[in-house]
Design brief:
single chain; Ribosomal Protein L22, Chain A; alpha+beta; 190 residues
Length: 190
């Protein structure tokens, strides 16, 4: 089964509420190599939140598979392939990431395979992300959004059903500050 995860960082909120330069923050969240890349980057602030977003998206992907939550950011190691592509390694697992940037947010999608998979994505206001998700799912399935039911897995990951039929194989909803994002793979997709 292919899982997918995503994370979004509101850059304005991160700048005002998160002091990434405080003592111990980088050491607690990032490997030595990542810390070095952050310190050497032209835009250290953006590199911090890029790596954060990559780790979170990969974590969400992994926890859907193992069905347990934990805190271990140092065990998730980010490697950049290009400005917007990377991999995150965690205990023998490899997650391929695609990141989009603009002046408002950083958004990363992580997936277990580098193969093409059909997934659906939307970025919008954090206030409307859940209704937007159901609307997009309704478009893709032909089922009325009012008939789509959101449930949560044992780890709190969203699952969407129509009657007793699971519609989403893998799903991730993320929100931070003014922005929300979702990605999902339909249950009938490979």
């Amino acid at each position: 089964m292919h899982n997918i995860g995503n994370d979004i960082v509101d850059l304005n909120l991160a700048e005002t509420e998160s002091n990434w330069q405080r003592k111990g923050f980088l050491e607690k969240q990032f490997t030595k190599k990542e810390q070095q890349e952050i310190c050497e980057a032209d835009t250290s602030f953006l590199t911090v939140w890029l790596f954060w977003s990559m780790k979170e998206a990969a974590y969400k992907c992994y926890t859907q598979k193992v069905k347990k939550r934990f805190f271990a950011p140092l065990k998730f190691e980010c490697r950049l392939i290009s400005n917007n592509e990377g991999v995150v390694l965690y205990e023998g697992n490899k997650y391929h990431t695609i990141t989009s940037f603009n002046s408002f947010y950083i958004h990363t999608i992580a997936k277990e395979t580098d193969d093409e998979i059909n997934f659906f994505l939307n970025i919008d206001s954090s206030e409307t992300i859940h209704s937007d998700f159901k609307k997009q799912l309704a478009v893709q399935t032909g089922i009325l959004s009012e008939e789509i039911e959101k449930r949560k897995s044992v780890i709190g990951a969203p699952l969407f059903y129509h009657q007793q039929k699971l519609l989403t194989k893998s799903c991730s909803i993320s929100h931070h500050g003014n922005y929300g994002a979702f990605v999902f793979i339909l249950n009938n997709e490979s």
